[in-house]
TrEMBL record:
Family: Belongs to the glycosyltransferase 9 family.
SUPFAM superfamilies recorded: UDP-Glycosyltransferase/glycogen phosphorylase
Gene3D superfamilies for the chain: Glycogen Phosphorylase B (3.40.50.2000)
InterPro entries xrefs: Glyco_trans_9, LPS_LOS_Heptosyltrfase, RfaF
Enzyme class: transferase
Name of one Pfam family that matches: Glyco_transf_9
The enzyme's E.C. designation: 2.4.99.24
Official protein name in the record: lipopolysaccharide heptosyltransferase II
Reaction equation(s) it catalyzes: an L-alpha-D-Hep-(1->5)-[alpha-Kdo-(2->4)]-alpha-Kdo-(2->6)-lipid A + ADP-L-glycero-beta-D-manno-heptose = an L-alpha-D-Hep-(1->3)-L-alpha-D-Hep-(1->5)-[alpha-Kdo-(2->4)]-alpha-Kdo-(2->6)-lipid A + ADP + H(+)
Keywords, ordered alphabetically: Glycosyltransferase, Transferase
Species assigned in the record: Massilia aerilata
């Protein structure tokens, strides 16, 4: 393979967005199977890219969030220039990421209009209004701007080895011979995305009463630990049935564990889209965000949104102060979607 037989993909910064970019790489690989695809990604999403078959090499970015760091970008571009890329796909819509392939003198630089990127992006795409869902939004970059996407896109897909799941479960004390149900009560974007902890606690109690010998894992980052602790405290279930794993797992661990889950209940978050890409049965809860924009795409996926007049507002906190889009989503409503999934497993 010559140095020119390579493509660079610059990753989004959010976990869920990285998952939903996988079909783009599939299309690129189908078009040029001889061409290696390298991914330049921030550290927080590298575990996702490691589980995408079409990504041949993953390189971590050294950049701080929201910082321009022009010197670091120039050094990164110089390193990339030595690799002799034929083309680059810039998935973030910011100017600072479009700088990198331009400084690296990569001849073909593909992306959306974004913030003042004319010249830096020289194959410019424009989004529809209203915006397309995220999967076709990224996948469209594989075609020329004027060409439509081919038929039905395959859903995002991540791959986890069985031995990885076994090792992680052993480390965390999760028994793989017992049914595992995962809850993801957090959301990095903000509290407007979160179903109340008391509701999750009531749902956990119903799962424990219905599924013999079940384990319920509360999952998330360290920022979600307090929320998950509230769920655990309010569930009132004895015997260690509910485990708060938020902040106790790396993203690598969380991905491996989710691959084993019988069902996943989650707010609109990165863990939801990971579970979906692992083809786990999911119940997805949407409040301030639009389920049509970033839906779960697993074979068994149930999406709940009250679709109130004020939602989706796409705000981090409820601008009206009542958070009705999540507070009024009843436990009965969510249970009606989860119970058939548990019964068929």
């Amino acid at each position: 393979m010559s140095s020119q037989d390579r493509t660079l993909v610059i990753s989004p910064n959010w976990i869920g967005d990285a998952v939903m970019a996988q079909p783009l790489l599939r299309l690129l690989k189908q078009a040029h199977p001889e061409r290696a695809i390298d991914v330049l990604a921030p550290p927080q999403v590298v575990p996702v890219w490691k589980r995408i078959r079409e990504a041949d090499q993953i390189m971590e970015t050294p950049f701080r969030h929201r910082a321009l760091q022009l010197g670091e970008r120039l050094r990164t571009a110089q390193q990339l220039r030595k690799r002799g890329y034929r083309d680059a796909y810039v998935l973030p819509n910011t100017l600072k990421y479009a700088l990198i392939p331009w400084l690296a003198r990569i001849p073909r630089r593909v992306g959306y209009k974004g913030e003042m990127r004319y010249g830096m992006v020289n194959v410019m795409h424009f989004d529809d209004s209203p915006p397309r869902p995220m999967v076709p939004f990224y996948a469209a970059l594989a075609r020329e701007p004027e060409l439509p996407l081919p038929g039905q896109l395959a859903r995002p897909s991540l791959v986890v080895a069985g031995e990885e799941t076994e090792a992680v479960a052993r480390h965390l004390g999760i028994a793989l011979d017992r049914p595992l149900v995962a809850f993801a009560p957090g959301a990095e974007f903000g509290i407007a995305k979160r179903w109340p902890p008391a509701h999750y606690a009531q749902l956990a109690a119903r799962v424990a009463d219905t599924v013999p010998n079940v384990q319920i894992a509360l999952m998330g980052s360290a920022n979600d630990a307090e929320t998950c602790e509230q769920v655990l405290a309010q569930a009132g279930i004895a015997g260690g049935v509910v485990r708060n794993l938020a902040g106790q797992t790396s993203l690598d661990d969380a991905i491996a564990l989710l691959a084993q889950a019988r069902a996943v209940v989650s707010n609109d978050s990165g863990l939801l889209h990971i579970a979906s890409a692992l083809n786990r049965p999911v119940v997805a809860l949407y409040g301030s965000t639009d389920p049509n924009y970033a839906p779960p795409l697993s074979e068994i996926a149930r999406t709940i949104s009250l679709r109130l007049e004020c939602s989706p507002c796409r705000q981090r906190e409820c601008p009206l102060g009542h958070h009705d889009c999540m507070n009024k989503m009843s436990v009965d409503r969510v249970w009606s979607e989860l119970l058939p999934i548990l019964n068929r497993a």
